[in-house]
Every structure is written in structure tokens, then in C-alpha cells.
Design goal:
Blueprint (H helix, E strand, L loop, with lengths): L1 E2 L23 E3 L4 E3 L2 E4 L7 E5 L18 E8 L2 E4 L2 E4 L2 E5 L3 E8 L2 E3 L2 E4 L2 E5 L8 E3 L2 E2 L4 E3 L2 E4 L2 E5 L2 E3 L2 E2 L2 E4 L1 E4 L2 E5 L8 E3 L2 E2 L3 E3 L4 E2 L2 E5 L3
Parallel strand pairs: 1-2, 2-6, 3-6, 4-7, 5-9, 6-10, 7-11, 8-12, 9-13, 10-14, 10-15, 11-16, 12-17, 13-18, 14-19, 15-20, 16-21, 17-22, 18-23, 19-24, 20-25, 21-26, 22-27, 23-28
């Protein structure tokens, strides 16, 4: 488990947590602290303060249990004055990708610049729940008006690509721009196969949303149901 006791020094060249196998499997609790001055420049996917957090692969792993999701969570942390750049996908100031984690809650991004190719969000690049019976909950996360998010496809204020997770009580004020599937809360949101829908509940956006191609929306650019 990781507890953040002080911010990352300004100008640091941060090596993301969980950048290599095995992926991060822990409770990350910021205890209300702020990480200041995060600097990331990546040519590979899964870019963020945390690269990739996962409790396991779910349906592909017969040993995986729903209770395993309780072992991974990210909460109570703010990212301020971050510059996060990637030439690849799955980019977020907080975390590049989550897979089958319990939650990402009460996390905030301010005064930051985040850019990548696809699945780009200020908080999470991609939130993926690959289980039938339960889902990751992304709740009470905010992005301020002094933040900009730029991507290609699946670019969102809070989450770039939402695959099977619940987005709850989140707010975005940042400017979000991309090519296609660009949204104030989520760029592209879809259920995990036809047996379980995803939800975006009680979220708000006041940021400017721009798509040079197709599918732009204040809350979500694209909302897709697998049939």
C-alpha cells in the first residue's frame, strides 16, 4: 500500500507506479495530499502518476474472485500543475489504466495539461471492469477550468474510455479536445458485453468540448451498448 506524505518535487521526471509487470495491486490513499509538478513524457501506453492498476484479469483468469477487487483502490489524492504527454494511448494525470479495481474516488486534477493519442482523460485514461457481477466505481472526482485535455479518439474530461465502470458524482470544467468520441466527463462509454450496462450518474460539465471529427457531447461523446 502507498500513502502519499508529500508532493512530487516540481520538474521531476516521474517513473509511473506500476509501469512494468506485475501491475500495481494495492490501496493508494493520498490522505488529502497534493502531488505538485508532475512531469511525464512517454512514448509507450499506460501513462500517469500511476501507470496501470489492476486486481487481476477477471474473466480470463479462473482464479479471480469479485473480492479481489477490494484489494485495489485509488482515493483522496489531488494532482496539481502536471504536464503529462504521451505519443501512445491510455493517458491520465492520475492513472493511465485501471482494470478490475474497486474504485477511484475523491481524486482531483488542477492546473494541468494532459495529452495523448487515444483513451485520454485528466483523471483516468481508461477504466475497465471485466467482471460480470461487480464494477469499478469512479466517484467524486473533479477537473478544474485551468486544465486542458487533448487527444485523438476517446478523450474525456474525467475518463477517456469507460469500459464497464460506473461514473458517479464527477465534475469537469476543463477544455477537452480531440478527433472523435470527445466528452466532458467520458469520451467513449460502453458496457461490458450485453449482460451489464454502464452508468454515468449525477455528473456535470462546464468545460468547452471540441471534436474535429465526430461524436462530441457535454457528458459523453459516444455511448455504446454491445448487442
Amino acid at each position: 500500500d502507498i500513502t502519499v506524505a508529500a508532493g512530487v518535487p516540481s520538474g521531476s521526471n516521474w517513473i509511473p507506479v506500476g509501469v512494468n509487470e506485475p501491475r500495481l495491486k494495492a490501496i493508494v490513499d493520498g490522505n488529502g495530499y497534493t502531488v505538485n509538478g508532475l512531469r511525464l513524457n512517454s512514448a509507450t501506453k499506460y501513462t500517469g502518476f500511476i501507470s496501470y492498476a489492476s486486481a487481476g484479469s477477471g474473466d480470463d483468469d479462473p482464479t479471480f474472485q469479485d473480492s479481489d477487487m477490494e484489494t485495489v483502490a485509488i482515493r483522496n489524492l489531488k494532482i496539481n500543475d502536471a504536464v503529462v504527454y504521451s505519443k501512445a494511448s491510455h493517458v491520465g494525470a492520475l492513472v493511465g489504466r485501471t482494470l478490475n479495481v474497486k474504485c477511484v474516488e475523491n481524486c482531483h486534477v488542477a492546473n494541468s495539461q494532459i495529452s495523448g493519442q487515444s483513451s485520454v482523460g485528466a483523471v483516468i485514461g481508461e477504466s475497465y471492469t471485466r467482471k460480470w457481477d461487480t464494477m469499478t466505481v469512479v466517484s467524486d472526482c473533479t477537473v478544474d477550468a485551468n486544465t486542458t485535455i487533448v487527444g485523438g479518439s476517446s478523450t474525456g474530461g474525467v475518463v477517456g474510455y469507460n469500459y464497464g465502470s460506473l461514473i458517479l458524482h464527477c465534475n469537469n470544467a476543463a477544455s477537452v479536445s480531440g478527433n472523435s468520441s470527445v466528452g466532458g466527463i467520458v469520451g467513449h462509454s460502453r458496457d461490458y458485453h450485453y449482460d451489464r450496462s454502464v452508468y454515468i450518474i449525477a455528473c456535470g460539465n462546464t468545460g468547452n468540448i471540441t471534436a474535429t471529427g465526430s461524436a462530441a457531447g457535454g457528458i459523453t461523446g459516444a455511448n455504446f451498448r454491445d448487442i
